[in-house]
Amino acid sequence: MMRTEGPSLGQAVAVFLCLGLMVSASAGCAWFTGMGKPGWVDGLSPDYPSTQYLTGVGQADTRSNAEDQAYAAVARIFKAEVAAQAKDWESYLVVENRGVSNAERRLTIDSVTKVSTDKMLENVRIADAWYDPDRRVYYALGVMNRAQAEASLMEKVVALDRAIDADVAESRHASDKLAKVRALRRAGRNLVLREVYNTDLRVIRLSGKGVSSSYQVNELSGELEQFLATNLILAVQVSGDHAEPVGRALTEGLIREGLHVTTTIDGEEAGSPELIVRGTVRLFPIEVQDPHFKYVRWCSDFEVVEPGTRQVVGATAHGGREGHLTEREATAKTLRVMQHELSSDVAKAIAAHIFGEIALPERATKTLRVMQHELSSDVAKAIAAHIFGEIALPERATMPASCPREASGIRR
Known about the structure:
The chain is an alpha/beta fold and 412 residues long. It folds into three domains: 26-145, Endonuclease I-creI (Roll); 147-227, no CATH class; 232-407, Double Stranded RNA Binding Domain (2-Layer Sandwich). The chain is 50% helix and 18% strand. The protein contains eleven helices and eight strands. It has a five-stranded mixed beta sheet with strand order 5-4-6-7-8. Strand 7 (294-306) and strand 8 (311-324) form a beta hairpin. Helix 4 packs parallel to helix 8 (217-231) and helix 6 (146-173) runs antiparallel to helix 7. It is flat and about 80 Å long. The termini are far apart.
């Protein structure tokens, strides 16, 4: 009886290789198959015509790096167009950040456009890869389907248009001045983001046309600036140590944030400010077991108050310490640091509260950042030195934790 034999080993290998070649060809992995250089390496891609796809080619010494470069190549197509349109949005950013440098405004623009670029890259995929054995270089092809990307962008533009319409309507019907400012601010920010997406849409579409908005960035920014200048004047009132230079630093910081600050307070007269930023600052020497340096601590407590109702609408507290060879030099250094922080961090926090971007508490408390720093450095070092017998800690702590309330010269 004859035994029927199954397929030989050679036949099985041939079938496997054939299937492997078919899979490789369908996946576009030309560098696995030993095929010659594909046309897309030189910018010719019949499988991904420019009428339907945006493409980018990356090359590197590893495949993963080549793929990253392909994504970056597609992103550059959009960034170039966004950069060309950015000047149209700078009017909003100038109002928002008056006094800052062009480099800082450019960083703000870049942070806005990065949101769009990151979203656009979600529509990119790696369609093919190839390895050049002679040059030992990997190539990768990134592609974006125009129709799919357009649908995604239109969805975002329509959603932003609805949000902008709602915010503009709210701003023009609001009786509360803070509510009006916050609504205009949201509308302006959303409009800038909407224009970034619209710029991307012009890149995606073969016609190069986007979808026009009912509003212009410079119109909304001008409306916000005009309202701030005439209806939301701030006054700064500082008491305590070095009150004049501290108040001047805080005022400059608030102006840089786009707010209008008056230098006088007219009481109950018609020209009186809508909000008062009032606070107290203190500098005092502290005992630190350091044979080489003297240390001075600073603290500040500020409130944002509505003069008419005397209501505190927000509060913030900041503090820190600095050291130098003498107490006089330590005091001078501490004053410089305090002025810088008040003109930057404190001013930004107050402006963000007024614009509705964060909510300050109604009572100032010592900042978590300051407490964490002290516990991780000063307190830990002091305890360790006491344990090792290098210093002797007192039995009762006497150092004040923040600005004493009874020393405050603030009018309530």
